[in-house]
Model the fold of this input.
Amino acid sequence: MKHFLFSLCFILPSLCQAADFKPYLTLYGDPPKYAASFQHFDYVNPRAPKGGELHLGAQGAFDSLNGFILRGDAADGIGMIYDTLMTGSADEPNTKYPLIATGVAVSDDRRTVTFALNPAARWQDDKPITADDVVWTFDTLKKHGHPFYRSYFKDVSAARATDAHTVVFDIAKPDNRELPLILAELVVLPRHYWSDGKHDFNQTTLMLPLGSGPYKIAAVDAPRRIVLQRDPNYWGRDLPVNIGKSNFDKVVYDYFRDPTVLLQAFFAGQLDVQVENVAKTWATSYNTAPVRDGRVIREEIPNQLPSGMQGFAFNIRRSIFTDPRVREALTLAFDFEWGNKNVAFGAYQRTQSYFENSELASHGLPNVDEINLLEPFRDQLPPEVFTTEYKAPVSDGSGYDRENLSKARELLEQAGYQYENGQMVKDGKPLRFEMLLMQEAFERWVLPFQRNLRRIGVEMGIRLIDTAQMQRRQDQFDYDMIVASFPQSLSPGNEQRDMWQSNRANTHGSRNLIGIKSPVVDALVDKIVAAHSRAELITATHALDRVLLWGHYVIPHWYIGKFRVAYWKTLGRPDVTPPYGLPVVETWWHK
Done:
């Protein structure tokens, strides 16, 4: 009886065949990795012991337990209290397996997506999860949720319940092939909780929300700590997708304002795991007694995750950054080679693509299929898109590359600036802007950049603010330049709209942090969303990549294709690490 909950499609195959339901969903209809009878994912330990506590560190602060709206800073870990219709695996891309839904049917014309819900699915107050909950969630997120949801669901015209355990989504644009998978990822919320007159979905809250997932929120001490308790009565604990997961009795997130204090707390044994993102810290700060005597294990774990793009992002809503020649000039003043050697101990490679570390990254010159996509826009694009492979500027590593700085000055002069009394001036106004940071570690990279800018007559101020301030200013696009990351999946899709398309440029809270308004970018993103095959997707992504790179919208940073993680020996982890994630909370355990 252990897996009786998994799927009605396995228990009553004749029923599912009649409705054309499948117990999986893939992007292009390819067979999934896991057969219908699978017992658990390959990267879990099905015999992992349950118990103990996992203590994790977070930086900044939180003021809300409602992570579905624009307001507030939501606490880490609250996603663990909710289930989605279906869930993915961390060792294959773009495949979903049953969770709240037992199966899914996509109509031949792709105008409807139907989910059959598991009658055993329960909220943590033991009320059943129904199709009415799903419909209410969809309507509420689209109308009142974070602007991201409106972008994600814009091609869904309606959600409707045909009975208590069946929900149908009507699709306005059937060429959006990713949309069924997006709907499968829908976090389902309890209508009866949010509609009881005591809770306002539109507001931040520290009242403990009702969920359906493997954990409940046990305690909250905002803005410093949140404690999640494993629910022994979790309805889905025996589903194959959950076997070997949620092994800790408690998961505790402690917040720290200072990353140095956070690391000290880890070595003092107050935290169990530290995923290190700063190369210098990894190289110089881990030679401590717990590491030397083996109590703390320090590992670099390779992954196959697309690294996307991280960089100093221009806010081209600002008039000083509207000219791409200005953006290219400032890019030439950033000396990555010097920083990588002196700041990062040579740990990084330079990012050359918005889809770095994947087959989606453009290389060489565009092929015939890419040119066919780009040709209608030739007069709107820089010639280099067709003639030259993009390469980020390379310096001599001295920290003062005269050749690059000379090119930068020439570009600024072409853009109408004149060098007067040590300043680049245009229309009587000096070229001056502010870099907004929330991580002190970035100052080691930014200060040498600031010095080089001064050498070409550009003044860059530096302002360090806390996480909450950064989130607010980022949501309002209130900055000149920030450190921004644009993470990518193995199969880009609808999220590209939120990052690049014109209709998101003035939508507060969107991921179009740069402020791009380009008909070419809009058209290429639509091609990505509508791709009918992996080959079409790769072609459209390569084309978009070239257009973004030659737009000089960011000063590219760096990447590393592995996780740098340290953890106390009291933790156990599966023998297999999945290629597309590091699921510490989900799959590790306390020995």
